[in-house]
Automatic annotation (TrEMBL):
Annotated organism of origin: Pleomorphomonas carboxyditropha
SUPFAM superfamilies in the record: Actin-like ATPase domain, Winged helix' DNA-binding domain
One Pfam family, short name: ROK
Protein name per the record: Sugar kinase
Gene3D superfamilies tied to this protein: 3.30.420.40, Winged helix-like DNA-binding domain superfamily/Winged helix DNA-binding domain
Lineage: superkingdom: Bacteria
């Protein structure tokens, strides 16, 4: 948190954030109602809103109120006024998604890249930006920047990947490498943190003062946002719940330890468990396993039920520690369907010491991670610079 000196530019920044966050949470609002809700003076709202209108961050909407007797102008975010690029990095590919200010998808592409090479990742990211800007006809001047979401621990402030076991990275200044090629600001963070930020800004956590997300897919992680701020921890490792030991002397995890939750219940581990009992040469995916469970296959049902209960217990541990108002479940693992999600949510509710946590399961699709990544850039409009 930067020091807040009582000078004019600081109060302008704070007024701007109050107004933008009000519109983000409540949608189109008349100036007088913003004043009543935020405590800002009409003069302050007038000053800040004219600046934001000029910058095309907000727009004026005409509406008729009082049963047609009075015309009133409301302010809203100008969603189409700015765009951001979100990039989700995986082991052999990246998915790049161009979104508007509300993280709505404009266009998307997938490119092959070897994630073990930071230079190749930087080049592929800059190329993806150029391709998507050209294809969509969006102007570079309206681009806020690029958000990169990937596994591991990051120094988000400096844009450095401190450690990523999956890709073999250590102290890689990836934001600077990309910015040198792309010529725009770049933010980098853990993919689960990025997902949490997207849910906080424009998702299920939009109205919540505190939000937790629990995500499971190739990896398992959790993240927590309080009053708009991500809890990152000193070395960006907060929320690494996938590395709780759940089976003493269990299978080896990519972090090097034995029996981590992630080694036992990640998406590949679940598919692998089914393949061991029912060997077959056709590869099975989460949707296929969900279908088998739905048809009553006892092996599929048993594996998904066990995994769901383990994941639910971990999510309950996280919720019990942090007492979030809202918790969102996401990740590719959602595609395993009700045979896994029902026991997950039931166990989460049963074991959560905090009885009032609202739980949502995110409908998952291919753009979800990249939209989260874009939120890393978009958040710069809605929070204080770190
Ligand atoms: Zn581990």
């Amino acid at each position: 948190m930067p020091s807040l000196k009582g000078n004019q530019s600081t109060s302008r920044t704070l007024n701007r954030l109050l107004l933008l966050n009000h519109l983000r949470r409540h949608g189109p609002t008349a100036r007088s109602d913003i004043a009543a809700a935020t405590g800002l003076s009409p003069a302050a709202i007038s000053y800040v809103s004219s600046e934001l209108l000029e910058q095309q961050v907000i727009a004026e909407l005409d509406a008729v109120a009082d049963g047609g007797r009075r015309r009133m102008t409301r302010l809203d975010l100008n969603y189409a006024g700015h765009v951001a690029l979100g990039v989700k990095l995986m082991e052999r590919s990246l998915r790049a998604t161009l979104v508007d200010l509300g993280t709505n998808v404009i266009d998307t592409l997938t490119a092959d890249v070897d994630a073990r090479s930071p230079a190749a990742v930087a080049r592929a990211t800059a190329d993806a930006l150029a391709d998507l800007l050209e294809r969509s006809g969006e102007h570079r001047q309206r681009l806020i920047g690029i958000g990169l979401a990937m596994p591991g621990q990051h120094d988000a402030e400096r844009g450095v990947c401190l450690r990523c076991d999956r890709f073999g990275w250590k102290d890689v200044p990836i934001a600077a490498l990309i910015a040198d090629l792309a010529g725009v600001p770049v933010w980098v963070d853990n993919d689960v943190n990025a997902f949490a930020l997207a849910e906080h800004l424009f998702g299920a956590g939009r109205q919540a003062s505190s939000l937790a997300v629990f995500s499971f897919g190739r990896g398992i992680g959790a993240a927590m946002i309080v009053d708009g701020q991500l809890l990152r921890g000193r070395y960006g490792g907060a929320g690494e719940i996938g590395h709780l030991t759940v089976v003493e002397d269990g299978p080896r995890c990519e972090c090097g330890r034995l029996g981590c939750l992630e080694a036992v219940t990640s998406l590949p581990a679940i598919l692998n468990a089914y393949g061991i009992v029912r060997p077959s040469d056709r590869s099975i995916d989460p949707a296929a396993l969900a279908t088998l469970a739905g048809e009553g296959d006892p092996v599929a049902r048993e594996i998904l039920d066990t995994a769901g209960r383990r994941l639910g217990a971990a999510a309950a541990t996280f919720a019990s520690l942090f007492d979030p108002e809202t918790m969102v479940i996401g990740g590719e693992g959602v595609l395993f369907g009700p045979a896994l999600l029902d026991p997950l949510v039931a166990t989460l509710k049963e074991k959560n010491f905090q009885r009032n946590t609202e739980v949502f399961v995110e409908f998952w699709n291919d753009d979800a991670w990249a939209r989260g990544a874009a939120a890393l850039a978009i958040d710069s409009f809605f929070s204080l610079p770190s």
